Amino acid sequence: MSRSFIAKNPSVLVFLAGLALFTLLVTVFSEGFGVGGLSTSFVKTLGKTLCLCLVAIAMDLIWGYCGILSLGHFAFFGLGGYMVGMWLMYARTEIIVEGALAQGAIPPTSQEVIDGIGTQIFGVVGSSEFPSIWAFSDSLILQLMMVVLVPGLLALIFGWLAFRSRVTGVYLSILTQAMTLALALYLFQNDSGLRGNNGLSGLQNLPGVSASQDVVSIWFLWASAFALGAGYVLAAFVVSGKFGSVIRGIRDNEARVRFLGYPVESFKLMLFTLTAMIAAIAGALYYPQAGIINPAEIAPIASIYLAVWVAIGGRGRLYGAVLGAAFVSLVSTWFTGGQAPDINLGFYTIQWVDWWQVILGLSFVFVTLYAPKGIGGLFDLIKTGEKS
Amino acid sequence: MSMNTLLEVSGVSVSFDGFKAINNLSFQIAPAELRAVIGPNGAGKTTFMDIVTGKTKPDEGRVLWGEKSISLLSMNEAAIARAGVGRKFQKPTVFEDQTVSENLMMALSADRGWWSVLWFRPKAENRDRVAELAEEVGLLDQLPRLAGELSHGQKQWLEIGMLLAQEPRLLLVDEPAAGMTPEEREHTTDLLVEVAKTRAVVVVEHDMEFVRRLNCKVTVLHEGSVLAEGGLDHVTADPQVIDVYLGR
Hints:
- The structure holds two protein chains of two kinds.
- Chain A is an all-alpha fold.
- Chain A has one domain (2-300).
- Chain A has helices spanning 2-8, 10-28, 40-65, 73-101, 110-122, 140-164, 169-188, 213-240, 242-252, 254-259, 264-290, 300-313, 318-336, 352-370, 377-387, and strands at 200-201, 292-293, 343-344, 349-350.
- In chain A, strand 3 (343-344) and strand 4 (349-350) form a beta hairpin.
- In chain A, helix 12 (300-313) packs across helix 13.
- The relative contact order of chain A is 0.17.
- Chain B is 37% helix and 25% strand.
- In chain B, a hairpin with a 2-residue loop joins strand 1 and strand 2 (19-29).
- In chain B, helix 3 packs across helix 5 (124-136) and helix 5 (124-136) packs across helix 6 (152-165).
- The relative contact order of chain B is 0.18.
- The A-B interface holds A 1, 4-5, 238, 241-243, 245-246, 248-249, 252-253, 255-256, 258-264, 266-267, 270 and B 53, 55, 76-79, 81-82, 86-87, 89, 93, 95-98, 102, 105-107, 112-114, 117-122, 162, 166.
- Chain B: Keywords: ATP-binding, Hydrolase, Nucleotide-binding, Transport.
- Chain B: It comes from Tritonibacter multivorans.
């Protein structure tokens, strides 16, 4: 399978080579492993951007290839972050609490340690009891499995209900928005068991690791680059053969695919669940680099931005999604991070923090109307240029 | 149901908002038979196809299929298609974004479950079959082209090719000759007559000249039920048929 599939998709090799080169360059110029030049916070931004590219690939699979405009994939991204965050917070607090209690004359009992951890983590929401959803938080392996299982199960149940009832188009988009909004509102509650609007914090500190953030940031960059590469190859495999034909068929004429005998609903459900899992893995790598996750991260607007990235990058082609996510999120960081100089017109000062949103909105409208192929469409121009 | 019946529709009625689109319709076809269905607009031809293919559920009546007389009414569209009912739409519906060869490969009879589709990679025999089908419908030299670039007639044939690729036992063909040139029509007629030697083919058609060339039994629909059935000369001589359809 692999030979013919890579041969049919030369862009996969080009992409992997580019990604490897990028990772190598960042490593060489990093504070932790190289000669310096790139600040650790910028390395983290780049690592996070790779995670956003991965979730954009998931979005492109479900929307660009299968035509399902999900506006809820950031819910899965966020859930992935929460799942890994639970272990990070538990394990790190455990070390701190054990250290503190060891000062005492009598060695602490395990119940005392657990109570201590509970007070540390949940004191902020006025509790010290571990909610039952934290049952596996002391095990890295189980919590990593939950990174894919919890969002996967949510997507499976949601998708089964929606696709079975043949909810399509804009109605499905609204339903996915409702899903992510409901999840965010639930997590905002203090008794949700995930610390309400405080979210999970201190995630950048790996328990039991004494290496500095300069080094840890590069580890996460590598892990993110690896995940992005693997996700790209997986996505390219999924869309390369007959499966790709069928899902593109579903996008263009769902009824026709059904009359060919394909169980359309199970294809959609499988792809919806798979992309939710990819999004969750991206989130699980993103939030340890961001350091904090809270329910605001999965507000409906986040999933809409995801669709905007893919649209600007060019949907229906994997590198388009990657380019769109990287370009828009980096530019967005630049504008909203205060680096862009304000422009004083005398009577009015253009502050990019506010005006960036307007530019983004306008460029989305422009791309939709005049350049539906997005940034990725530029490659077609080069190709046709070569031919003639 | 007799041994010589592939599809038996009996006493089927369906109404939309009080309008009876199909009214106590009965219809039978043998495993290898060509049948033309004619009737004025609104006679229920498309609704009839929708019922057989599972798109519309009738209010009453039976639709039985095959030697074992399975009811098609409890099955969804995809399951009915897998059971062996193929449908060609009036407007050519091919996947314009994909090549002729991809279109045919997708239609090719094979396991339709997502898991086996995911791991499916065309073998030499699959490619040969695609080429064979393309030759049958006159598209052999168009295989690598995007379906969207084909002419209207070529798209119609591609869709017929896709229908054949499914290896159905019953083909429901809605106005295959619409928008075709005289030569293309002739080719289409030959193809349908040939296919009907081994399968059941139902052709819905407006064009009487085309129906005459098919040279087969004709069912005339009117207001959702069968008005007359028999040879073309027989039904065209029927005063009722002349009154509601041909006379105008």
